[in-house]
Amino acid sequence: MHEFIQYILSYLGNETQTPGAAGNIFWATVYILLVFVGLSVAVICMNWLERKILAHMQVRLGPMRVGPHGLLQPIADALKLLLKEDIIPAEADAIVFWVAPFIVVLAAFTVFVVVPFGPTHAITDMNIGILFMLGVSSLSVLGIVTAGWASNSHYPLIGALRSSAQMVSYEVAMGLAVVTAIMMTSLGTEGGTLSMIGIVQAQQAQGVWFIFKFFPLGLIAFAIFAIAMVAETNRAPFDLPEAESELTAGFHTEYSGFRWSLFFLAEYSAMIAVSSIAVTLWLGGWLRPFPNTLTGPTWDLVFSLFPGITFLFLAAMCFYSTARMPKHPLFRIQTIGLAGFGVVLAGIGLILFIPGVRVRIVDIFWFSAKVAGFMYLYIWYRGTFPRYRFDQLMKVGWKILLPTGLTLMILTAVVGMRAELWAQVQEVLHR
Amino acid sequence: MNPPVATPFFFYLLAATMIIGGILVITRKNAVHSALALITTLLAQAGLYLMLYAPFVAGVQIILYAGGIMVLFLFVIMLISIERAQKERQFNKQWLIGIVAAAALGGLFIAVYTTTTKGRVLFPEGRMSYGESDNTQRIATLLFDLHSGTYMFAFEIASLLLLVAIIGAVVMAKKRI
Amino acid sequence: MHAMLDISTLHYLVLGAALFLLGVIGVLTRRNVVIVLMSIELILNAVNLNLVAFSRYWQGIHGPSALHGQVFAIFVITDAAAEAAVGLGILIAFFRNKETVNVDEVNLLKW
Predict the structure, then answer these.
(1) Inter-chain contact C7–B161, Cβ cutoff 8 Å?
(2) Number of separate domains in chain C
């Protein structure tokens, strides 16, 4: 028992390694559980946010009845999905039908093993971090293909084949954009690396986020990845394979109840995963904005107050909505609920002002804020753009993104080599 | 350097997964079941590569084999009508000779692996084992480095081979050339 | 028992040999072309396992840069991808002509 407590405490003094790299199984399990719970909460929030933001973009209100301003709607949806009847089509292959959502969820969740929320705030730091993430997220194509096949019906089969063709095509463009960013990590003093934490540390060492490096090369690479990642996760405007008006929900037509909620969970987790890749590779991961122009301890302090300020702002919005609730007695419970939620948010905000908590949370906060920005972009795209037809989709993937990605890779290599040689020449001249 | 954790347990677990997956691949009637069993075998193999401190090969295995080749197999299985083939005879006429030949090969393997010459085993244990923290960089040195890259030529030939394979597959599968 | 618990190179080689045998049985006894191709993939995987196990063995002797087995394994995986693509292309072309996926019905050139 005493050795077990020693084992737990031995990691707490370790400031330089993730629990996986340090070999500490207990803390690795704790981090895994934290990431799992955080991801589930994030998916629930995304469900509510998507419906409300999409509604406000379309000049309507969205869910308002279930809780105050529809805040309990995701919980009601989850309960309904759990209690629905589990239907399997008659001629469907039962084993494959059962395994398919399992594969997709597995692929979507395993990716989070290497996502870096901070320099030591990751489950582990693999030497092949980005390769692992791209590889495991390409396993979800298998799940979709088997789901369409196992349903033994026309619409799911066509939807599955279209969806997997689309995902495989845009994986190529994603891979080229990722290679461009990885090439930028090898400039400077450190040497190239595929590990996610190493990529952010390379951006820190070179003093510039890769989206701004060799302007506009980093920006175009980021744009290619941003378009490809929307297509990779089958979201609007690339959601022909699962659009209701086209294919009656595509490959997950025959799935109902809990199995459908697994697909839904996997889709949102995959969205968060590819957004994490984009944030880590181009937007500097957990680094705060303006690390070079606004330096110094005062600016560090100002930027570290942001987590608390964000939660206090959310609490203020809750209280404002409480004041605007109708004064009817039937709304009393909702008003009290909303005020209580505001108090909880304000409490969290005040806790985040304590210096001890602040210094640990600030990395996780900046990473999560950037990923949340990407989630908002996803919802914005869904509300704004019309759907691509399938041949237009394939044309964009192969004829526009792929040549641009190749050209960009070659240009980045040439410009990078020039910068390296110039730096070496400078070093020799000024010795 | 961190010692590996529970190595024999994970080795035997992954080995059992691979053997059972292999047996399922060669005995199932339904080709989709075989493909799923092969995917399980390939992922277990990636786990074994990780145990052998070869993370880059494990990553390449997951991306290329499980995420690329098996998708190709599943597409083709869906394009050809497999239901009729399920009701036909599964094993061909010379299955007995095939099993005898495989058994002879197995006997040869056992003879090789249990040879001891003057009391020494064929593959004695190596000395100190190295970690994986810079495995990708070392493979890149072997492949691309100007002075010590012994496999640069093979890399270029491999890319030419892939080009030929792409053209060949497209020409073979087209309806009219 | 202690020899079974200490995982050495020989363990990986025996596992590779077992997979190779399973692949050979699959190639020699099945009629369905797709399953024969999948058995060939099993054989290639067994070979890869051998290569990477030997690369580890060599690392113990020649130092951490003796990664020739791993590079060879990467080339074998690339090769397997190319061969699977061309093999499946041939299968599709054949299926379009004869409407069957059985190996022993590929006998148009028989005398």
Answers:
(1) no
(2) 1
